[in-house]
Specification:
Largest interface: A-B, 57 and 60 residues
Low-confidence stretches of chain B: none
Radius of gyration of chain A: 21 Å
Mean pLDDT of chain B: 95
Number of strands of chain A: 11
Radius of gyration of chain B: 20 Å
Number of domains of chain B: 1
Low-confidence stretches of chain A: 1-20
Oligomer: heterodimer
Number of helices of chain B: 14
CATH class of chain B: Alpha Beta
Chain lengths: 370, 351
C-alpha cells in the first residue's frame, strides 16, 4: 500500500467513522524539528453522573486497569464507615490517602503521623519500596547512602489509611492487601457501586503496590468520578459527607497528591477548586469536574505517561473549563518541550486528537497556538 | 497501525505497543516487512555506525593512529563507565583535543552506579559522561583531519555536518533534498529516513566488503570493530552489548531514541529496522528478539539467556513479577497482534 492510500485508510477508520481500530485514536504526538517522531494512541470519555456521554474520542467501552486513579474512590468506604473521623483523620491525611506522592519530607511525615497514631511503624506497610519521584529526595538518599523506605513509596498514604481502616474494622492487619480481607472487600463493593458494575464481575489485577486493582471500561472510571462530584454536591445523599471530604481534601492539599512539582498538584492548585485530577500508572488520568458534576477519563493505550498531560489540558480546553489565566499557568503541560542536551528546544509533546486530520510517523506538523 | 507487542498485568493486556518492521537485503530488496516500509523516522543513535563511514573513509584513522576499539567508541551509545571514559580521553589526546571541545552537553550517564557516584560526590557530569560523547569525538577527529574549526561543530551549517550530509546522500544514492535534517538529543544533526532505507543501510553494514555499494569497505571495517568490542559499543548488562556477546557477533543490534532498534545480521546479509510508534524502548527489545528468533538467528538457549530483554518482566514495588512484555506478531506469517486492552492474554504464548 502506498503512503497516500495508507493515510486515507487511517482517515476513514479514525476520523470519518466513530472510532478507529480497537477503539483507539491518536491522542498525542511527539515532534522533533516539526516532524512527528512518535504517536500515542488512546481514548477519552467524559460522562455525567447518570453515565451519559458528554464527550468522547475512541471507544468508551475499552477496558483498562484503574491503577492509582482509583485512590479517591478506594478511600471512600473508610470515611463512610465512620473510621476516618473516629480515628481523627485530618483532611491532609485523607489527601495523602488519595495520593501518588513524590516521597518528599512532607509526605513522609504525614504518613508517619498516621502510623504513629495507630501505634504502628513503617514495617506494617505492605506497599514495597520505590525510589521517590522527587529528584531532590532521591539524590538526598543517594548522598546519604540510604535505601528508600516504604514511606517513600507513592502509595504509602493509601496503605496507611487501609491499615487504619483494618484496625477500625477489628480485622487482621497482617494481610490487609489481600482480596479476601474485609478492607479490600469493602473497597471492591464501593468501586462496584461507583462504577455501576457488579463487584463480583470486575476482573482484578495486582497493582504496583501489591493491592488488588480493577479492570473497568473507560466510561465507568469516568462515571465513578462523576458520581463522586455529584454526591459531594448533594447534601442529602448518604455518600455526601465521604465524597465531599475527598474533594475538599484533594483541593485543600494539592501538594499531597503528586508532590510539589507534579501535574495533579499544579492542576488543582491553578484551578482552585473547580476540579480534582488524579494520575494512574500506565498513563490513565481521571478528572472530577464540579460544574455539571462531570467525570472524565483519559487513557494512553501504550502507557506513555508523557502524553497524558497535554491531552488532559487539551480536553479541558475543548470542554471550556480553563480560562486564559489558568491556561497560561498550565501551558507548559500543554506543549511539553523536548530539549536537547544543550537545553535547546527541538520539539514538543502535543495533543492531536482535536485536529481534523490523521497523524502518522514522519508527518510534518506545526505546533499551533491556542 | 500494526500491533507488535503487549504489556500484561495479572494475565491481562494492560498496554499496547504498535510499530513497524522492515527487513532488507544489501540490494535494497525488502525481504520481510510489517506495516508500511515507507514510514519515516529520525535515525537518532542508530545512525552512529553509519556516520562512522565518513571517518573511516577520510584517512583520519591512520593519521591519528585510531584503533578498532576507538572506532567501536565512535559508533557507541556508551554508559559512561570508567573504562569507556578512559577510551574517550585517549582519543581526544590522539587528535589534539580536550574534553572542553565536546559540545554534547552535560547529561547524567545511563549506568546507575556511575550516576549515583556522581550524585554522591555532588559532581555535575562532564561531557564525556554523555552517551554520545564517543560519536562527538569522531566528529572532532574529522574536524581536525580536514582542518575545520572545532568551534560550532554541532551546527548543521558547519563543514563537518555538510560532509556528513554528503556522505549520507552517497550512502543512500539520493540527492540532498530527499533527506530531512533534525536535531538529535546530543545537538548534532540527525536525519529522517524511511525505515526501508534504514534497514538497507544496516544490511550493508551486515554484508560489509563486497556489497557492491558505496563505502562497502568502510562498513565492513565498522562491523568488525563493533563485533570485536561489544563492551565499548554500549556497556555490560545492556541488550546491545549482551546480544553481540551471546551470539558471538552473529548479530549487531543498535538502539536509537524513541523506540528505534536496528540490527545487522552478517550471516544472512540482512538489515532490520524496527520503529515502535510510541517510542517505547523495552518493547523494541522484545520485538527485536522475536525477529531474530523467526529468522533462526537466536536459538532457544540464547533467547533464555537474554530473557531480561527477550521477555521483559514487569515487577511491582515488592519485586514480584506481575506481567511481561510479549511480542505478538509473526514476520514470516505476516501476522500482527489483535489484542484488545483488558483482554486475557493466553498464557501458552509465554516462553
Amino acid at each position: 500500500m502506498n503512503r497516500d492510500a495508507f493515510t486515507r485508510k487511517i482517515m476513514q477508520n479514525e476520523t470519518n467513522k466513530d472510532y478507529g481500530r480497537k477503539g483507539l485514536v491518536p491522542l498525542a504526538a511527539v515532534t522533533r524539528n516539526r516532524h512527528v517522531e512518535s504517536v500515542h494512541y488512546g481514548c477519552i470519555c467524559v460522562v455525567d453522573a447518570q453515565g451519559r456521554i458528554i464527550y468522547r474520542k475512541g471507544d468508551p467501552d475499552t477496558k483498562f486497569y484503574f491503577r492509582s486513579s482509583a485512590k479517591p474512590i478506594q478511600v471512600l468506604p473508610f470515611i463512610m464507615s465512620g473510621g476516618a473521623s473516629a480515628m481523627n483523620f485530618s483532611l491532609k491525611e485523607i489527601a495523602i490517602a488519595c495520593a501518588s506522592h513524590s516521597g518528599e519530607e512532607m509526605h513522609q511525615k504525614t504518613v508517619q503521623g498516621i502510623l504513629e497514631r495507630l501505634g504502628l511503624d513503617q514495617s506494617s506497610l505492605h506497599c514495597g519500596t520505590s525510589v521517590p519521584y522527587n529528584r531532590d529526595e532521591s539524590n538526598r538518599l543517594i548522598k546519604a547512602g540510604k535505601e528508600p523506605s516504604p514511606l517513600h513509596a507513592g502509595c504509602s498514604g493509601k496503605h496507611a489509611a487501609m491499615l487504619a481502616y483494618s484496625i477500625y474494622l477489628g480485622s487482621d492487619i497482617s494481610n490487609y492487601e489481600k482480596i479476601g480481607h474485609p478492607v479490600q472487600q469493602e473497597v471492591l463493593r464501593t468501586i462496584g457501586f461507583f462504577a455501576d458494575e457488579d463487584p463480583d464481575g470486575i476482573p482484578l489485577g495486582i497493582d504496583g503496590c501489591g493491592l488488588p486493582i480493577f479492570l473497568l471500561p473507560l466510561r465507568k472510571m469516568a462515571l465513578s468520578y462523576a458520581k463522586l462530584m455529584k454526591f459531594a454536591d448533594e447534601p442529602g445523599n448518604p455518600y455526601h459527607k465521604a465524597c465531599k471530604t475527598v474533594c475538599d481534601a484533594m483541593i485543600s492539599y494539592p501538594e499531597m497528591i503528586s508532590g510539589s512539582k507534579g501535574f495533579c498538584t499544579e492542576l488543582m492548585r491553578v484551578t482552585r477548586g473547580k476540579l480534582i485530577g488524579k494520575i494512574g500508572a500506565e498513563a490513565v488520568y481521571c478528572l472530577g469536574i464540579k460544574e455539571g458534576c462531570l467525570g472524565a477519563c483519559v487513557k494512553i493505550a501504550d502507557g506513555g505517561e508523557r502524553a497524558v498531560y497535554p491531552v488532559v489540558i487539551q480536553l479541558l480546553l475543548e470542554l471550556g473549563f480553563l480560562n486564559r489565566d489558568e491556561y497560561e499557568k498550565l501551558k507548559r503541560w500543554h506543549h511539553i518541550g523536548v530539549m536537547n542536551n544543550l537545553k535547546e528546544h527541538v520539539g514538543d509533546i502535543i495533543p492531536v486528537f482535536q485536529l481534523d486530520k490523521p497523524v502518522s510517523l514522519g508527518d510534518k506538523l506545526f505546533v499551533y497556538d491556542l | 497501525m500494526p500491533q507488535l507487542a503487549v504489556r500484561t498485568r495479572s494475565g491481562r493486556v494492560e498496554s499496547l505497543h504498535d510499530g513497524y518492521i522492515c527487513v532488507s537485503d544489501p540490494d535494497r530488496n525488502i525481504v520481510y516487512s510489517i506495516g508500511s516500509p515507507d514510514i519515516s523516522c529520525f535515525l537518532r543513535s542508530a545512525g552512529k555506525p553509519i556516520y562512522a563511514v565518513a571517518l573511516v573513509d577520510s584517512g583520519a584513522m591512520e593519521k591519528f593512529g585510531l584503533t578498532f576499539r576507538d572506532l567501536a567508541m565512535f559508533c557507541s551509545s556508551h554508559q559512561g563507565r570508567a573504562y569507556q571514559r578512559r577510551i574517550i580521553l585517549s582519543i581526544l589526546k590522539k587528535i589534539g583535543c580536550t574534553e572542553r571541545d565536546l559540545d554534547c552537553g552535560h547529561k547524567y550517564p545511563e549506568d546507575r552506579e556511575v550516576r549515583d557516584a556522581l550524585i554522591m560526590l555532588c559532581k555535575r557530569p562532564t561531557p564525556i559522561f554523555s552517551n554520545c560523547s564517543g560519536k562527538h569525538t569522531g566528529f572532532l577527529a574529522l574536524c581536525k583531519y580536514y582542518g575545520y574549526p572545532v568551534k560550532g561543530y554541532v551546527r548543521p551549517e558547519h563543514p563537518v555536518n555538510l560532509l556528513m550530509l554528503k556522505t549520507m546522500t552517497r550512502l543512500l544514492e539520493c540527492d540532498e533534498s530527499r533527506i530531512i535534517t533534525g536535531t538529535d538529543g546530543c545537538s548534532l544533526p540527525t536525519y529522517m529516513l524511511t525505515i526501508r532505507d534504514i534497514a538497507w543501510l544496516y544490511a550493508r553494514l551486515a554484508c560489509g566488503h563486497g556489497s557492491g555499494h558505496t563505502y562497502d569497505d568502510c562498513l565492513g571495517i565498522i562491523r568488525d570493530a563493533i563485533i570485536q568490542y561489544p563492551d565499548v559499543f554500549r556497556g555490560k548488562g545492556t541488550f546491545c552489548t549482551e546480544l553481540i556477546r551471546h551470539t558471538k557477533g552473529r548479530v549487531i543490534g543498535k538502539l536509537g531514541a524513541e523506540g528505534l532498534y536496528c540490527m545487522a545480521i552478517p550471516e544472512k546479509q540482512l538489515g532490520v529496522c524496527i520503529k515502535m510508534s510510541d517510542g517505547h524502548p523495552w518493547s523494541s527489545f522484545a520485538v527485536a528478539a522475536r525477529v531474530l528468533e523467526e529468522l533462526e538467528v537466536l536459538d532457544a538457549d540464547t533467547f533464555r539467556k537474554l530473557e531480561k530483554w527477550t521477555l521483559p518482566h514487569i515487577q511491582n514495588d515488592k519485586g514480584e513479577d506481575v506481567g511481561y512484555i510479549h511480542p505478538v506478531f509473526s514476520l514470516l506469517e505476516q501476522k500482527t497482534g489483535e489484542y484488545e486492552p483488558g483482554c486475557i492474554y493466553p498464557q501458552n504464548h509465554a516462553k
